[in-house]
UniProtKB/TrEMBL annotation:
InterPro entries: DUF8001. It comes from Halogeometricum rufum. Residues 1-77 form the DUF8001 domain. This is DUF8001 domain-containing protein.
Length: 79
């Protein structure tokens, strides 16, 4: 399994995150939430995109849904 890509919120673009996910890499993003800094794990199993936060697991059936989530949650910087 490839080494996870680690970044802070806003460090990478949505395209850079999605490229890593398509390559089979997990992306770990440090994000401020719930009054602290937490790690969010983004991954793709070849069919479904996952966004695993400290409170919930979001599933997205396609890349467009994952891109919207990444941008809405502030994990990526504006492109």
């Amino acid at each position: 399994m490839p080494e996870p890509l680690r970044a802070k919120s806003g460090e990478l673009t949505a395209d850079e995150i999605l490229d890593a996910l398509r390559e089979g890499r997990r992306v770990i993003v440090e994000a401020e939430m719930l009054g602290g800094v937490h790690e969010v794990s983004l991954r793709h199993d070849g069919t479904t995109f996952y966004c695993d936060t400290p409170t919930t697991l979001h599933k997205h059936p396609d890349e467009e849904g994952m891109r919207d989530c990444i941008l809405k949650m502030g994990y990526a910087r504006d492109e």
